[in-house]
Amino acid sequence: MVEVPTSSPHAQTSCAETPRPGAGRHVLVVGAGAAGIPAALAALEAGARVTLVDKGQRAGGMLWGSGAVLSAAGTDLQRTRGIVDSPLRHAQEVWRAGRHRAVPELLALATTHAAESLAWVQSLGARFTAESPLLLGLADQHELYGVARSYLLEAPEELGWRRGPVLAEVLVGALAPWSASRQLDLRLRSTVTRLLVAGDGTVSGCRVEAAGGSTTDVSADCVVLATGGYGASPQWLRSLHGEYDQLVTQGLAHATGDGLVLGEQVGGGVVNADIVVPSMGALEDPDHPGFRLAEGALPVGRPPAVAGDIWVNAAGVRFVAEDTESPDVRERAILDQPGGRMVAVFDERMRRGLTPAVADWTGRVLGDPPDPRLVHSADTLPELAALAGLPADALVESVRSYGQAVTRRADPLGRSRMPTALTVPPFHAVPTVSSLVVTFAGLGVDGGLRVVRPDGRPVGGLLAVGELLGGGQVQGDGFSSGMSVTPALTLGRIAGRTAAGVDPRGLDRRPHEVAADLVGAAGGAAPGGTAPGAPGGGAA
Ligand SMILES: Cc1cc2nc3c(=O)[nH]c(=O)nc-3n(C[C@H](O)[C@H](O)[C@H](O)COP(=O)(O)OP(=O)(O)OC[C@H]3O[C@@H](n4cnc5c(N)ncnc54)[C@H](O)[C@@H]3O)c2cc1C
User: Is the CB of 307 under 6 A from ligand 1?
Assistant: First the structure.
């Protein structure tokens, strides 16, 4: 059973101001993804009637394109393998990886109940691979945890690393009996276009536009927003992270930040606009601007720099050891480059000698012949520089000094894998941009998941969960394996129960203790001026 923390100053009130627990309550959940479906199921289990609205053709949201690696401490699977771990340790590691920017109460809530979420999805039919838990989540994308606490879903081989569809099917399957019993009204291809507000300012329902264009107002005792992130919205990307002028998403097209708009309309505030955690080296899909070319990124899924390429910024200058093992170091380095862009530079010998590890990436990009929309090729470096929009002198100098480093076996940037200098024409340049797996700004909530105004006061009748909160509030300023899907499940279930008006009194104090430890470790306040328990800093 999951509960809201006693630590929250607002924990003793449920979503609506006058809770009528369980039966008779109507909960409206917007968004049927990793957060919204668990919220709907938890509210149903608590006896509420639920309307679950999603603008997509099918429920499941981002899980259809996600790796869905989960992370949790204190699970049966860890115990079976003799792995000693605790939610406190999990929270501490995420807290550090996120540079102390997470909201302690939310991180504590998510980690304390993560093991229950794993057990819950297992009870619904999900299975984890025999080697789970692993130390590594998805290869090359996140810093390692100190102990094995990443779980891979058992999935058919053809799904590859994208195992999320398995979880989507499990969650969608769990909705079916509730639809059949009519306690759940699942409305697909239906978009929530605005929130309805009662005279006292409390959210009282939503306006829903169905695919055919018909519009209905649906009233509810509590609304849970679970509309996901904003990676597919050029408008939100520009307004929140405009300095990175060409961010692309690795996600699906529905993630347009609708919940941010809905939340702002009723006074909610967007927080953590200053947090962007990109994967570097993505190729924008020329057929779908704004989206990453499928499997089209340099460092993900291959040993970095295995082909010997060098990476230069817009000034034509190398800026990071291309073989650095730390994704975090790479991500920070690319954030410091203008626009978050870089260009990978190869010579013909490298293109021809590419190992199978890079073949997926290169098949379409550097194949025979290379795709001219994605790669520039020229017989001389100055010509290449002109095609790629780089200063010729700087590029020539970068290639020359890298060649010297290869000869001396000593690189000023500390690169150790340097198979060969770039000497064999034609030369190739692949311009790349930064890509987002998860968006980190989000709608500010308090420790009870209630949407809050910029001054911290809650908006009555409105909860928010999932990626809509942004990675920043739960993880902070940095990636931790499994810390998007697992908190979406966990906080989703908590929000569902809260929305159903379940009395949160008499709860265990574990989340409170974990949060207190995090705050204590940070010397009483999170860096960046964010007060503990308040929504994350950097309000937009
Ligand atoms: C390539 C990739 C790999 C990933 N791998 C991992 C991983 O291994 N581990 C991990 O923890 N996380 C991973 N993530 C992130 C994780 O999958 C997402 O953060 C998570 O699934 C988001 O769940 P959500 O329910 O918050 O939002 P979503 O799943 O995005 O669901 C939101 C739903 O709301 C609906 N919606 C939006 N607006 C409206 C509206 N106005 N009206 C009605 N409906 C609306 C959408 O149609 C959608 O179905 C990955 C993401 C990507 C893109």
Answer: no
